[in-house]
Specification:
The termini are far apart. It is built from five helices and no strands. It is an all-alpha fold. The chain has one domain.
Length: 155
Amino acid sequence: MSAPAPRPDVPSWRVALYAGLALLAVAGSLHLSLGMNLKACPLCLYQRGFVVAAAGALLVGALSGARGFAPLCALPAAVAALAVGGFHVYLEAAGRLECPKGIVGLGTAPQQAFVAELALALALAIEMLSRRPLATLVALALGLAGAYGAIAAAP
């Protein structure tokens, strides 16, 4: 008996859900800067850029009908955002950075961003692992490489 073939398509409601989650993270990030007048550090900006890229890939995929590939295309950016976010939270916990409170004072801005990035990256990775396992592992590796470049470049 052979293994079942990968399921290529992702239901449109799930792609919309992932896009909504990414857009919510972008909106929260922009609210910190525009609504609360906080200045973003380089790590915050890298995280925001990666999440915007993931949101863009998901929206374009959802609107173009490429639902089978949209989560996979968004995955490297989501993983990069998560890894940079994890490093950011680590620096804060180690006392090397002092970051402001987040929206409604629930944790700090990096902690809130990390939670959103974790939810997005996990959802995308779980979705794609059963559909395209090898491509998912490549996407994870690309995301980690992107995060390494961003962290190495941060002042």
